[in-house]
């Protein structure tokens, strides 16, 4: 089994990493070419391209200028410990036992606009580049064109190495669009997380993001390799709803006041 997650906009490069173990990203040359393209943009152009504030644009303009092909513990941090959004608060990788981090390194991949695919312990330098950004390159009009089939091919390699029977999609729609499911060598299972609100079940973004991280943690704590074992996921009150699910879309619900 292989799990894919989205990255996060929020980053934490201040808290010391809980492990010295690290690896390097697979697509450093490809990331470097994107950085060179981003360095052509002024802060104002970055703000317009990414629909972000001027201070954020200035921050990331500086990040692109500082980015280096050489990754060290001084300029980079392990991806799963550097991302700091809702998904990663649910995953809370820093509190996993070493065996849990080892599991994530083998069975989880993080999709990235800049790095393509990251293993959890791959060092990454701070950046902001969402997969949906319409950054034109020589490959096409956006990052989907830039990455082409590279991400899918990388996932297929890991799936084969792990003898995986399925890919569990815990990524957002924006990021999973970088994967070409028809070219994957295994079926895709997409968990869906719903909350009871206003007299019916519905997806609420904040809770759904956190639940994705919680499910990845659930798998890591138990060393799950058979996707069927995810059906027992019960973190923070969720439960599998067979009647609302299909073969490739697994619905987990919880009923509580929110």
Concise synopsis of the structure shown:
Helix content is 36%, strand content 16%. It contains 10 helices and 10 strands.
What does it look like?
It is a single chain. The chain is an alpha/beta fold and 258 residues long. It is built from 10 helices and 10 strands. The chain has helices at 28-38, 43-50, 54-66, 79-82, 86-91, 98-107, 143-147, 150-162, 173-176, 205-222, and strands at 2-5, 77-78, 108-112, 116-118, 123-124, 167-170, 188-197, 200-202, 239-240, 249-254. The strands form 2 sheets. Strands 1, 3, 4, 6, 7, 8, 9 and 10 form an 8-stranded mixed sheet that branches. Strands 2-5 form a two-stranded antiparallel ribbon. A hairpin with a 2-residue loop joins strand 7 (188-197) and strand 8 (200-202). The chain is globular.
């Amino acid at each position: 089994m292989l799990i894919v997650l989205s990255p996060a906009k929020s980053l934490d490069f201040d808290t010391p990493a809980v492990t010295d173990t690290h690896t390097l990203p697979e697509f450093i040359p490809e990331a470097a070419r994107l950085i060179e393209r981003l360095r052509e943009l002024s802060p104002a152009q970055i703000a317009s391209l990414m629909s972000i504030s001027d201070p954020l644009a200035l921050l990331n303009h500086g990040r692109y200028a500082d980015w280096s092909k050489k990754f060290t513990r001084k300029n980079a941090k392990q991806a799963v410990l550097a991302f700091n959004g809702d998904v990663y608060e649910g995953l809370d990788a820093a509190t996993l036992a070493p065996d849990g981090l080892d599991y994530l390194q083998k069975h989880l991949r993080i999709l990235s606009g800049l790095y393509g695919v990251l293993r959890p312990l791959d060092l990454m330098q701070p950046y902001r580049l969402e997969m949906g950004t319409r950054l034109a390159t020589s490959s096409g009009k956006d990052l989907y064109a830039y990455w082409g089939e590279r991400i899918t091919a990388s996932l297929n390699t890991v799936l084969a190495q792990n003898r995986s029977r399925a890919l569990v999609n815990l990524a957002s729609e924006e990021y999973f669009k970088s994967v070409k499911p028809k070219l994957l060598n295994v079926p895709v299972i997409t968990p869906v997380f719903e909350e009871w609100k206003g007299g019916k079940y519905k997806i609420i973004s904040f809770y759904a993001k956190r639940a994705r991280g919680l499910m990845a943690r659930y798998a890591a704590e138990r060393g799950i390799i058979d996707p069927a074992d995810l059906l027992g996921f019960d973190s923070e009150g969720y439960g599998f709803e067979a009647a609302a699910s299909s073969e490739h879309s697994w619905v987990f619900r919880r009923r509580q006041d929110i």
